[in-house]
Write a structure and sequence with these properties.
Number of strands: 14
Strand content: 15-25%
Structural class: alpha/beta
CATH topology of the largest domain: Rossmann fold
Strand order of the largest sheet: 6-7-8-3-9-10
Distance between the termini: 36 Å
Number of domains: 2
Shape: globular
CATH superfamily of the largest domain: P-loop containing nucleotide triphosphate hydrolases
Order of helices and strands: EEEHEEHEHHHHEHEHEEHEHEEE
Number of helices: 10
Radius of gyration: 21 Å
CATH class of the largest domain: Alpha Beta
């Protein structure tokens, strides 16, 4: 039995005084219990729309979404809200912590909608979750007294405190530096493994996507599976080489005509680098005799240009 499934899902919107705009087209995706899936896509590819459908926040224009093999469309709005609150945890790029509330109070908030023993034990449960993410010494700290990594840990604890069966992470490391982002992803992976929750990570960063077991690419509203060696799990050597100032990968440009006159910098953007499996801030160099491939400095392996 699948946990969540999308079958031939299409999402179309009609802007005011504009023709209909199809954001997602024929999306098929099945999430199994304990699954770990990454979805990579550029800005404007439909990632946020897909996240809203996976999180039962929106309904598709056509196609079917099932949860535990039961059609979501048959549920009333109230029942869909209860299902979302009990079974789905969201981790966003922005921490969205409540100002003026301590870390413990922020994590306790979702438990206010619980009943019975869980409701009466809510503070203890929240404290245990904060201990699990390594913040037992920060229970009474306000958000503005926490570092970015600590705020994201509080947000993770809040999203997982009700024991969700599905974790949806939307650019979870976008507001963090490289090292903190990696530790946050390791934390999410660890908690998901302990609880048996499935993960869906939506990102534009191939380094984050590589941590998943199954990979998809979303491009112009079409979702396709990706079987790409650049998305294999990162090794310690990979992380060390990709760290700032430690032999970062470089993009080799074969044709010097594409370089800016006088400065030797090749015109590119983070999306183009991401398509080639490089970090958005990878250094660039121009080599007139280089073949039209992207290589990593210090690595003899070659990769065909996507």
């Amino acid at each position: 039995m699948s946990l969540l499934a999308l079958r031939e899902v299409t999402r179309t919107v009609i802007p005011q005084d504009q023709p209909a705009l199809t954001i997602l087209s024929g999306v098929d995706l099945t999430i199994e219990p304990g699954d770990h899936v990454s979805i990579v896509g550029r800005s404007g590819s439909g990632k946020s729309t897909l996240l809203n459908l996976l999180g039962l926040l929106d309904q598709p224009t056509s196609g079917e979404i099932t949860f535990d093999d039961k059609p979501v469309r048959a549920l009333s709005a109230a029942r869909r809200d209860r299902l979302r609150g009990a079974a789905i945890g969201f981790v966003f790029q922005q921490f969205n912590l409540l100002p003026g509330r301590t870390a413990l109070e922020n994590v306790t908030m979702p438990l206010l909608y619980s009943t019975g023993r869980t409701f009466w034990r809510r503070k203890r449960i929240a404290a245990e979750m904060l201990e699990l993410v390594g913040l037992e010494h920060r229970l009474n700290s306000m958000p503005d007294r926490l570092s970015g990594g600590e705020q994201q840990r509080v947000a993770i604890a809040r999203s997982l405190v009700r024991g969700p069966r599905l974790i949806l992470a939307d650019e979870p490391t976008g507001a963090l530096d490289l090292d903190t982002g990696q530790s946050v992803m390791e934390l999410i992976d660890d908690v998901a493994t302990r609880t048996g929750a499935a993960q869906v990570v939506i990102t534009h960063d191939p380094m984050i996507a590589r941590r998943a077991r199954r990979h998809f690419r979303l491009d112009r509203g079409i979702l396709t599976p990706v079987d790409d060696p650049t998305l294999e799990p990162l090794t310690r050597r990979d992380r060390k080489e990709m760290a700032p100032g430690a032999g970062a990968a470089a993009l080799v440009v074969a044709d010097p005509a594409v370089a800016h006159a006088g400065d030797g910098a090749a015109p590119t953007d983070s999306d183009a680098l991401a398509d080639l499996g490089f970090a958005p801030d990878a250094p660039l160099r121009v080599e007139p005799s280089a073949p039209p491939v992207a290589t990593a400095s210090g690595d003899a392996s070659e990769q065909e240009d996507a």
